[in-house]
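If you are new to this repository, start here. Below is one unmodified record pulled from the training split, so you can see the exact layout before writing a loader.
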Amino acid sequence: MRHNKSINHLSRKSGHRKALLANMAVSLIEHKRITTTLAKAKALKMYVEPLVTKSKEDTTHSRRMVFSYLKNKEAVKELFGTISPKIASRPGGYTRILKVGFRHGDAAEMALIEFVDFNEAALASSPKKETRKTSTRRSRSKKAAAETAAPAVEEPKTEAPAEEAAPAAETPAVETPAEEKKAE
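And here is the target side for that same chain:
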């Protein structure tokens, strides 16, 4: 039974667990999102959220307290310089855990942990992969049957777009003599 056992020990001794969580916290602060197992993500959330709360008050004491946990100067600078101004108005809940499925090797449940206010920046910076939809012979034959069953109706073209294009072509001709007058 797990009466009053709030800490997940992650099958590690305390020194190993502290080093693991510190390294994961540094990676989360630097990259704004990481993928790990669900158990580690939940433990990391409990580890990082108090540090982010301490970073809201930018004092020497709070910087030293956070550094005693993280042991990384660049991560402390990033936390106090970039992350804390964005989350200053948020009362808590700085991180989000999203389940992403199971790992192929051992079927461990995987999760993505990220800072809530940095989701837009992370999505904009990540390259989007182009996915190709593979078609089967059956789906190709269904598409061909649908195209032959309902022929496309062509609408008559109007000459309004051509008239709109003509004034645009005249505009550069008017601007060129004005530029020649300025040159003289």
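Two things worth knowing about this chain: The mean pLDDT is 82. The helical segments are 14-31, 38-55, 60-70, 73-86, 119-125, 137-149, 160-183.
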